[in-house]
Amino acid sequence: MYDKMKESMQPMVDMAEINKKTTEKLIALQSSYVSDFVNASLTQMKTLSEIREPKQALEMQVKYLKDVEAKLTGVAEKEMAALVEAKEELTGLVEKSVADMSELKDLKEMPFMAELQKFMKPMDITAKK
Questions:
Q1: Quick check: 93 and 14 in contact, CB under 8 A?
Q2: What is the DSSP string of the chain?
Q3: Contact of 12 with 47, CB cutoff 8 Å
Q4: Is 129 exposed, middle or buried (0-12, 13-18, 19+ CB in 10 A)?
């Protein structure tokens, strides 16, 4: 019975693992970006404090902001890729689970479904009274 329960819960375990992996990837991307941003900001402040010409300071600031924008765009693209990958994995997992359920010949093979149907029948508004 334990093996059957473990087998029936495997899709949920797989979903949790996909979510965990995606979360770890997103946290790593964000942590790296924040670290880079803080370091670049400190470097920029130091550089600006040494510049005496306003035009040069403005040019340095524009360059800095373009670099920040490029890094942020790169991180956002990597995050979207991670989320799309997770979505595809989760969709595949759900589709496989639904396909496996449809292969069952009888709901009696899934006792919890029989129990669920007992509760659903009184709620069925299309059922004849």
A1: yes
A2: -HHHHHHHHHHHHHHHHHHHHHHHHHHHHHHHHHHHHHHHHHHHHHHHHH---HHHHHHHHHHHHHHHHHHHHHHHHHHHHHHHHHHHHHHHHHHHHHHHHHT-S-GGGSHHHHHHHHHHHHH-TTS--
A3: no
A4: exposed
Q: Is the pTM of this model over 0.90?
A: no
Q: Which residue has the tokens 């797989």?
A: 14
39, two tokens: 């370091």
Both structure tokens of 95 = 């589709």
Amino acid occupying residue 76: A
Q: Which two structure tokens, joined as six digits, stand for 106? A: 């009888």
List the one residue out of 2, 3, 8 whose CA is nearest residue 104: 8
CB 35, CB 22: distance < 8 Å = no
User: 71-107 pLDDT, tens per residue?
Assistant: 999 999 999 999 999 999 999 888 888 777 766 655 5
